[in-house]
Amino acid sequence: xxxxxxxxxxxxxxxxxxxxxxxxxxxxxxxxxxxxxxxxxxxxxxxxxxxxxxxxxxxxxxxxxxxxxxxxxxxxxxxxxxxxxxxxxxxxxxxxxxxxxxxxxxxxxxxxxxxxxxxxxxxxxxxxxxxxxxxxxxxxxxxxxxxxxxxxxxxxxxxxxxxxxxxxxxxxxxxxxxxxxxxxxxxxxxxxxxxxxxxxxxxxxxxxxxxxxxxxxxxxxxxxxxxxxxxxxxxxxxxxxxxxxxxxxxxxxxxxxxxxxxxxxxxxxxxxxxxxxxxxxxxxxxxxxxxxxxxxxxxxxxxxxxxxxxxxxxxxxxxxxxxxxxxxxxxxxxxxxxxxxxxxxxxxxxxxxxxxxxxxxxxxxxxxxxxxxxxxxxxxxxxxxxxxxxxxxxxxxxxxxxxxxxxxxxxxxxxxxxxxxxxxxxxxxxxxxxxxxxxxxxxxxxxxxxxxxxxxxxxxxxxxxxxxxxxxxxxxxxxxxxxxxxxxxxxxxxxxxxxxxxxxxxxxxxxxxxxxxxxxxxxxxxxxxxxxxxxxxxxxxxxxxxxxxxxxxxxxxxxxxxxxxxxxxxxxxxxxxxxxxxxxxxxxxxxxxxxxxxxxxxxxxxxxxxxxxxxxxxxxxxxxxxxxxxxxxxxxxxxxxxxxxxxxxxxxxxxxxxxxxxxxxxxxxxxxxxxxxxxxxxxxxxxxxxxxxxxxxxxxxxxxxxxxxxxxxxxxxxxxxxxxxxxxxxxxxxxxxxxxxxxxxxxxxxxxxxxxxxxxxxxxxxxxxxxxxxxxxxxxxxxxxxxxxxxx
Length: 792
Description:
Elements (H helix, E strand, L loop, with lengths): L4 H16 L4 H17 L4 H14 L6 H15 L4 H15 L6 H14 L5 H16 L4 H18 L1 H15 L5 H13 L6 H19 L4 H17 L6 H15 L16 H19 L1 H8 L4 H4 L1 H8 L4 H18 L7 H8 L4 H8 L2 H10 L3 H5 L8 H14 L3 H10 L9 H18 L3 H16 L4 H16 L4 H17 L2 H7 L1 H5 L7 H16 L2 E2 L3 H17 L3 H16 L3 E2 L7 H31 L5 H10 L22 H23 L3 H6 L4 H12 L3 H4 L4 H11 L2 H4 L28 H10 L2
Parallel strand pairs: 1-2
């Protein structure tokens, strides 16, 4: 049909039609799917399709095999969507009058019900009233309960096609009558259809007609089959929402108690014997009770709206507690999925469910944990910032068990074979700088990320740990800790004995380029990265070649001219000395790509303007992070007592400083000796304001922004406007050179004496490093590493 539709219709289709008369089940199913695919591909026009295929489809609708019949029916229902009205009336609707008669088979009448439900969307209300509704009424009164139930479920589609008035006068009476039917499946279908049509009916119909039916159905549900309870528990949230406002206080309370009873259904029975000794019917009943409680968990957010979030603690907290501690995994899994919605609805009352969050994090089932961590960043953000200021101030003390629960959850995921859950959990841990203190992250999570990167056997898990570690490093507030992490990355990964660790170091470098400023990467990771061009393992050199364009993009000319020379020297050496043909081929392609790259300049360029602004903002935040730490130390010395992380957070939140740099800030010039004491005080004060400003921006950024390492346009605009007001002399102090000069005098001894950290800061000409000289090419790799370690 795709290649030659005309010849296929003329020569092939007749043979297919003949073969289908005697074909088996498999061929019938394949033909039904093929006919549907031809329709969806639009291989022929609708008119041609109806002329060639429609009669074949109608002929096999009543096949003796139920699966084949349903397959042809699905094809027909899709065809009805595209056929014109005239074709529908003559080819389908007119024959349907005889097919829906009691003299026809039950299967024929069931097919007629489904076709009628589909046809109502293709005709106007008048045609439906005249030609379709008589058939609908007849099938609703059919002698077989299967037919009545099937027609009842189609009344929702029919109601949407005929409008509100005809629905009230024709459909509603039929539904009320069917809700009293002797067949339980018919009553269930009527109940579900009524719930789905609640929006169509007005308040009078709901209160006078529908509410009594619903009350009667709920009262009889415990005496009926458990399948009715399953359906009722699933639709209860929609039912309470649709009838909200017409309940009397007594009815409101009765429905709430009915929901609570369903939430604990089956839990009251003591089950102290072996499962193998339980009769099969009891096991089946327990499975149905589990389904009921699972549906109750699904509807829990709707029930919070029903009782009003303000009444949650008094009305629903005990029920929520039971669902979170339910003995069955599907129930706990469902409430874990709903946990974020519950947190949003509670808003300032979210602190009420802190313990349940810890419970689900510690759940023995990884399925429950996997469901919870989908929205873990948003949940933790609500837990830490949602509510009034008094709650915010005590956010860390109100979650005392959070850190142990998070670490235990990660260890359980790591010990299992479900590495995707482990990977997802590590990715979500990137939100932790918003929630817990920098020290807690450093002592409880950072080393664990290192361990995963070096010992885990699953590559996606290692990469997730690497990226999360980089984000932890980005928002770490202690310079000594940051440099210790950088040193570990370089020594244990970049210079590790295992080539696998060196590959992970290159992955980490890629994340560093994405998350940090260009100057940060150039200062700490540029030389250790390109040093791997001498790696003895071809895979490492190959991966580095793929990374080199990103590495080059971090350079700015002319400040990084010496680093550019190092890069070119390494690439030239690879071209000349590389023996592996696969690596050499990639090197040649990389060289062409590097040659086409345009270098970023120190001054802003129009084509790189947005990227330069973003990088400048990252660099500014990194500098302010260092200044903030220095100010903390000065304040501790002045006060004569240490300032805890919690105290500093509280003081920072209490400050009412703006979130952007003021235009009138006095910026100190390094090396200037003419500053008066009063000016020095102003300088310190301005630093404090800027530090607090950064802290507000960096640590309270949304998780999505943190994950993408981008900053909001407003903060960028504010920074640009503040910089435009500074004098040329003042601007010097914001460059990396001046910061390094100022930092050398005021940095703690642990940092200044750290001899093993490479420093390739822009504009540095005083320090002599073997990596920045031409002698690097002639030195063996081990000797180079050794000399760099011994260089102060």
